[in-house]
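Hi Y.,

Following your request, here is the sequence exactly as I used it, all 291 residues.
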Amino acid sequence: MGKKKPSTKTESPSTGKTERINKLKRAFAYNLFYQQGKTTRTACMNDYYLAVSRTVRDRMQHLFINSVEALLDKESKVVCYLSAEFLMGPHLANNLICLGLYDDVAQAADETGLDLQAIIDHEEEPGLGNGGLGRLAACYLDSLATLQVPAIGYGIRYEFGMFDQEIENGWQKEVSDRWLKPGNPWEIRKPDMACDIGFGGYTKNYTDTEGNLRVSWIPARIITGIPYDTPVPGYRVNNINLLRLWSAQAPRSFDFDDFNEGDYFGAVEEKIAAENITKVLYPNDEQFQGK
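Below is the corresponding structure, written out as tokens. Let me know if you'd prefer a different format.
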């Protein structure tokens, strides 16, 4: 019985690109409709930005999961980089270039009646860094991903970053940097990986059952750290590394008894005190609270 001859039919480059463009357009429409609850008739520029970004992030997730699986299979070591700042810059354009998707997404946007550059320009600068320290940390993560070295960046998810500058009557006025207001489509909240962290307190000496002198730490308060994961792609490689930023929350953010007694501020006092830790990058340290 003769073997069936393998098919010699190949997909033309134009057919392959057309299919890629159509998949991007379908994914964009899906995210716009199901994530934003909008259509092209009702959407605003921020809706378009979120939909396009989620379309790109979905493609990054496949690479990220594959990177994690390969890491687990090989039992590889991971570089962990801790920094108070990560000046990553806007994500959309960088991710499109690293993944080699820029031209395809630009064409898909154009065929949908959108201007990709206008969508890119809409993205807020993440308020996670100030200068050289933050940019150096970001360069390390980018380079490690491109070199396909497994790495995780650990930092703080500042709710208001540094500050925005306004000029009134020739003088600078500092206002809060609300960079998270439009939404951050690149991060994934991981409440299942939350950690309790002690602050302040005192140490206590004691002798264990074997007669050894020991010291235990009694923290003054406990803060819950919630991680937010952002993928960091390498340039034209299949490796995706991770930036994990932590947000502070109170273990008990609402006191029902205080609220029922009319102490509305006291009911959320723990919440305010905890969340202040990750509000801004560099708080004014002239006061004790800022220190």
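The two ends are 83 Å apart (CA to CA).

Thanks again,
Q.
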